[in-house]
Every structure is written in C-alpha cells, then in structure tokens.
Specification:
With 262 residues, the chain is α+β, with helices and mostly antiparallel strands. It has 6 helices and 14 strands. It has a 7-stranded mixed sheet, with helices on both faces. A 5-stranded antiparallel sheet has the order 13-12-11-10-14. Strands 4-5 form a two-stranded antiparallel ribbon. A hairpin with a 4-residue loop joins strand 12 and strand 13. It starts with 8 loop residues before the first helix and ends with a strand. The protein binds biotin.
C-alpha cells in the first residue's frame, strides 16, 4: 500500500512538547537499518535525542538476530540516539517498553501490553518491538533505541506463521491510523518515561507490572543456553525478570542473556 501518511520531519516536530527526544528528526526514504544510521549519529554527543525514521529498511533487524521486515510506508521504523543515557541496561529496556506501551495506549478495545523484554502486544499479538543497542567501542551512556510499530498492515501482510502472532494498529482499531500522530505520541512518551526512570525506577517497574502479560503467570525461558520455568513475580530494575522457579528458589534473568520460550 503506498503511504498516504508519509512521514515528514517538520510535521513530527511541529509543537512537539519535548526537550530531549525528537529535538532533531531525520526521515529517510529507505535505509539499511535506522539503528545503523542512528549509531553513526551517536558518535557526536550533541545528537542526544535525535530520532531517525525510515519509510523502508532493507536490513531491519530484531532481537536475537531476527529479521524485522516491513513494506514501505506500513510501519513506524525509528531509532532514537541517546548519547547521555544514565540508566542501567535493564531499567532502560523497561522504560522503553513502558514508553511504547503507554504511548500506543488504548487501541480499539485493548490497552497495549508488554511481553518482557521488548514485545508490545495488542489483543495478545505483537504490534511493536524494541531493539536497544550499544556498540562495544561506544562511550558509556551511548546507545540507540530502535522501535518498530506495525501500523497499516492488514492480516494478509503477515505470512501464515506470523498471522496468529502479529497484528497492527489498523487491524486492532479497524481504522487507518496516522503514523505522524503515533510517532509523536511515542516520542513524547519516551521522553516522559526516561525522565521518570532517572528519578524513580519504582514508578517504571510499577507501570511495567500494570501492563505486563506475564506477571503472575508461568514463564519458560532460556538463559545462557539453560532452560528455566517458573511463575513471574516481578521485574527488577537492575537484574531483569524475576521468576519463582518451579525447581525452587527465586532467580532473576537479565534481558541481554534471556530468550522467552513461552
Ligand atoms: C524485536 O522485536 O525483536 C525488535 C524489533 C525492532 C525493530 C526496529 S525497526 C527500527 C529499528 N531498526 C532496526 O533495524 N530495528 C529496529
């Protein structure tokens, strides 16, 4: 579908009530991955808060080396440059998930929810994903937050395997969303939650708990090539997901080393 709501940096920035995130906005028609572009911009400390959008990515990626595919104009594909990040990796990841879920808010009948660590769900299906990256050579405090949000996809856009698991804002709202409006809400929400996280990590974990689909439920996961199962009893801003293990005891799982099985 050709984009009817083409992204325009001036429209995204117009009256955007943020001091940090979205101070500068760049829109690419096509690029490999907005995370790669953002990581180049991140070499300059002054680019803190700059956001790269693309209508299309030729090598979009997700967590665990997965491909993140989206046809031109269907999604929000963006990466936020953070050169002055003061949050630990776990808290940053939680704050980003909370930002995207609250930024999307209620769509149709459903409030966007969080499947730890980085999946945002609507109606139990994935509508958005987040990929936080920093390079080993990067200075402390430098990272890129990549966000992909399915906007205009119809059910047919997803292959047979993805169809039961993926959705879009348009599918859930039964209307056609305006990507500029969604993008502005995401940036505003990210600014808010990064600020909250710096002052009060508890406020972030409380909001995470309110939006989590896993809290109080059984979770199976892989951590450093070992499988674990247990009841999710919370999330820790430094150590990650907290499980009451079936095998006994409580253990915390950092996002960088963990893959959810179910
Ligand atoms: C995931 O769910 O595995 C994370 C997906 C993150 C996708 C976004 S799209 C914009 C940015 N550029 C990328 O190559 N990936 C992220």
């Amino acid at each position: 579908m050709p984009p009817t709501d083409q992204l325009d940096p001036d429209k995204i920035k117009a009256n955007l009530n943020t001091r940090r995130i979205g101070r500068q906005v760049v829109v690419y028609s096509s690029t490999s991955s907005t995370n790669d572009v953002a990581s180049e911009y991140a070499r300059n400390t002054d680019n803190d808060g700059l956001v790269i959008f693309a209508e299309e990515q030729t090598a979009g990626r997700g967590r665990g080396g997965n491909i993140w595919h989206s046809y031109r104009g269907e999604s929000i594909l963006c990466s936020v440059v953070l050169t002055r990040n003061r949050l630990d990796a776990e808290l940053l990841s939680l704050a980003c998930a909370v930002s995207v879920a609250t930024g999307l808010g209620k769509v149709g009948a459903d409030q966007a929810s969080i499947k730890w660590p980085n999946d945002i769900l609507l109606n139990g299906k994935k509508v958005a994903g987040i990929l936080v990256e920093s390079k080993s050579g990067d200075r402390a405090g430098v990272c890129v937050v990549g966000i992909g949000v399915n906007c205009h996809q119809t059910r047919d856009c997803f292959g047979a395997e993805l169809r039961p698991k993926a959705t879009s804002i348009d599918i859930e709202s039964r209307t056609v969303c305006d990507r500029t409006t969604v993008a502005r809400r995401l940036l505003t929400s990210l600014e808010h939650w990064l600020e909250v996280a710096e002052k009060d990590s508890r406020a972030v974990t409380d909001q995470w708990s309110a939006l989590s689909v896993q809290l109080g439920h059984r979770v199976r996961l892989n951590c450093d090539r070992q499988e674990f199962a247990g009841n999710c009893i919370g999330v820790d801003p430094q150590e990650g997901l907290v499980l009451q293990l079936d095998a006994g005891g409580v253990r915390m799982f950092p996002a960088a080393h963990t893959t959810i099985i179910k």
